[in-house]
Amino acid sequence: MPHARSEGDHVDHVLQEWRRLGSKRDLSPVAVVARLGRAASLLDRGLNENFARFGLNRNGWDVLASLRRAGPPYRRTPTELCRSLMRTSGAMTHLLDSLEQAGLVERTPDPNDRRGTLVGLSRKGRTLVDRIGPSHLATEERLLAALTQSEREQLAGLLRKLLISLEEQPTQPPTQERTGGDRPASSQRRHKTAAALTRRGVR
Question: Which residues contact 66 (CB under 8 A, 6 or more apart)?
């Protein structure tokens, strides 16, 4: 059963638990990253509750709003959508399929690329975006009600600084930490084969 908290947020509770265990590490990154992740999840939940009233979710809204911001004729390439919305090509294809089935977007051949396509906002999609817009802004206002205008501007500035730093960092594949006898699977197989050959007197 979780401990009751008289004050502070969930992350305060997490940090207290680590400190009770005697952790001597600098936990300041946890205080920031954990709160960003938790806030993002709670904001998404609040936004999706509003989008659900219109038969949509946050992912679908992001695509439709991106096309609307492009201006007439409200088109972008799938690659542009993937990059701006930080989605994989597979996830974007699945999302566009569902939006196209709902009649909210249309795919057409790209006149500048014989093998490419363009994703365009349908009339129905544009009407839906314009209908949702005021409600979406009102929902964001409600979710940020705890912050004053100056606090919002300060937070926006700090997040902008963080995002610029993160967006400039090169994407690197995850590395495998090796401790003791840890080896990649291929290395382990080679080691086992060599050991077997040695036992047989082959090596």
Answer: 76, 81, 84, 85
